[in-house]
Write a structure and sequence with these properties.
Elements (H helix, E strand, L loop, with lengths): L6 H6 L7
C-alpha cells in the first residue's frame, strides 16, 4: 500500500516522486 501517484507522496518525499 504505497501511494506513489498520490498527493501525500509529494508531501512525504518531494525529492522526485510527484514533483
Amino acid at each position: 500500500m504505497r501511494p506513489k501517484l498520490r498527493a501525500p507522496v509529494s508531501v512525504l518525499s518531494p525529492s522526485g516522486t510527484f514533483r
